[in-house]
């Protein structure tokens, strides 16, 4: 008999957290082999009290005294899962809902494949459920990039299993026993790329990391107007650090840490950043030779056009 701990990481998102928790409870039996938790990152919207009141003993609330970001919140979950001796740990963002059968698909596959250390779900767009947000992720160290098998596109059928380098932590399951061979989430990341670093370590430890199509999660990823540059700062910095880009002097550009233009606290930065949905593909490193050639061709066309216009004017004058 295996045991599973499921942890929802939350910061000021009680409405989303309730929907997430409900989607979990609707597909599991309240037995001793499954335990549901809310890890609350010092929310100020009453999230912890709301969940306690709504679900009682069905959900255990773990409160952090400060906002530790997504990385710190999930580390609280992983440490708790180790202490409680769970077989598997499921990590969920608060703005995710699970399709029926998702948890069963994840745990069954883990039970049948001991070589697998981590499984990511097929992540669909909550507002456009026929579209995939992400499925299958690979690290491109040559171009400091991510390569997705499927990325913000219509779901017209996919492979059932994609062996990946890493998976997103908005909805994943990990084998707790493999955590003794890896580090936890890099908390210095605060948010962005921390999950990719963590799950890639599981692969480096000798386990398989896969994306499973029959385990479906819907991700809201709502985008709000952002009044600070923290999302850009963490997104760029953490990608370069994760992929070993030679950027030792990056933080020298921001001596005071993450810029918080128009914001007064790290918590406000986190709230804006957590809800920002990436709406564009990450493109490969540009081919500078092609850029130069294209520029020369365009300038040549402009020059030829100007010459033709001059000749036409002169011809009209002679007539």
Architecture blueprint of SSEs:
Blueprint: E1 4-10, H1 14-25, E2 34-41, H2 47-55, E3 59-64, H3 69-84, E4 88-93, E5 96-98, H4 102-112, E6 116-125, E7 128-140, E8 145-154, E9 161-163, E10 171-175, H5 194-204, E11 208-219, H6 230-242, H7 266-274, H8 288-318
Parallel strand pairs: 1-2, 1-4, 2-3, 6-11
Antiparallel strand pairs: 4-10, 5-11, 6-7, 6-10, 7-8, 9-11
Helix pairs in contact: 1-2
Commentary on this structure:
Strands 1, 2, 3, 4, 5, 6, 7, 8, 9, 10 and 11 form an eleven-stranded mixed β-sheet that branches. With 319 residues, the chain is α/β, with parallel strands linked by helices. The chain has two domains: 4-219, Spore Coat Polysaccharide Biosynthesis Protein SpsA, Chain A (Alpha-Beta Complex), CATH 3.90.550.60; 288-319. The chain is elongated. The N and C termini lie far apart (97 Å). The protein has helices spanning 14-25, 47-55, 69-84, 102-112, 194-204, 230-242, 266-274, 288-318, and strands at 4-10, 34-41, 59-64, 88-93, 96-98, 116-125, 128-140, 145-154, 161-163, 171-175, 208-219.
A few lines on this structure:
This protein is an alpha/beta fold and 319 residues long.
As a whole number of angstroms, the C-alpha radius of gyration is 24 Å
Helix count, DSSP H or I runs of 4 or more residues: 8
- Count of domain modules: 2
**How far from one another are the termini?**
97 Å
Tell me, what is the CATH class of the largest domain? Alpha Beta
Q: What quaternary form is this? A: single chain
Mean pLDDT comes to: 84
Number of strands: 11
Order of helices and strands: EHEHEHEEHEEEEEHEHHH
| Strand-residue proportion | 25-35%
Uncertain residue ranges: 260-287
Which fold does the CATH topology of the largest domain refer to?
Spore Coat Polysaccharide Biosynthesis Protein SpsA, Chain A
Percent of residues in helical segments?
A: 25-40%
Structural class: alpha/beta
């Amino acid at each position: 008999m295996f045991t599973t701990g499921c942890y929802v990481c939350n910061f000021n998102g009680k409405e989303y957290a309730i929907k997430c928790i409900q989607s979990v409870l609707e597909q599991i039996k309240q037995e001793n082999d499954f335990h549901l938790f809310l890890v609350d990152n010092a929310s100020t919207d009453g999230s912890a009290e709301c969940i306690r009141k709504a679900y009682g003993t069905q959900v255990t609330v773990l409160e952090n005294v400060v906002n530790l970001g997504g990385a710190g919140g999930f580390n609280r979950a992983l440490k708790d899962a180790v202490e409680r001796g769970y077989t598997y740990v499921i990590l969920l963002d608060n703005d995710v809902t699970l399709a029926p059968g998702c948890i069963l698909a994840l745990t069954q596959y883990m039970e049948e494949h001991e070589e697998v250390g981590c499984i990511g779900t097929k992540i669909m767009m909550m507002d456009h459920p026929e579209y995939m947000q992400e499925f299958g992720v690979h690290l491109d160290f040559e171009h400091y990039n991510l390569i997705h098998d499927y990325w913000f596109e219509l779901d017209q059928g996919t492979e059932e299993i994609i062996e990946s380098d890493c998976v997103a932590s908005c909805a994943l399951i990990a084998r707790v026993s493999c955590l003794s061979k890896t580090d936890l989430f890099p908390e210095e990341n605060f948010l962005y790329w921390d999950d990719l670093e963590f799950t890639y370590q599981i692969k480096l430890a000798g386990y398989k990391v896969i994306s499973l199509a029959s385990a479906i999660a819907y991700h809201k990823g709502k985008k709000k107007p952002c009044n600070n540059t923290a999302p850009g700062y963490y997104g760029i910095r953490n990608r370069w650090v994760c992929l070993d880009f030679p950027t030792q002097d990056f933080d020298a550009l921001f001596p005071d840490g993450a810029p918080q233009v128009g914001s007064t606290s790290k918590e406000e930065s986190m709230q804006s950043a957590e809800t920002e949905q990436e709406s564009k593909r990450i493109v490969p490193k540009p081919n500078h030779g092609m850029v130069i050639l294209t520029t020369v061709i365009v300038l040549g066309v402009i020059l030829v056009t100007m010459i033709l216009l001059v000749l036409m004017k002169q011809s009209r004058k002679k007539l």
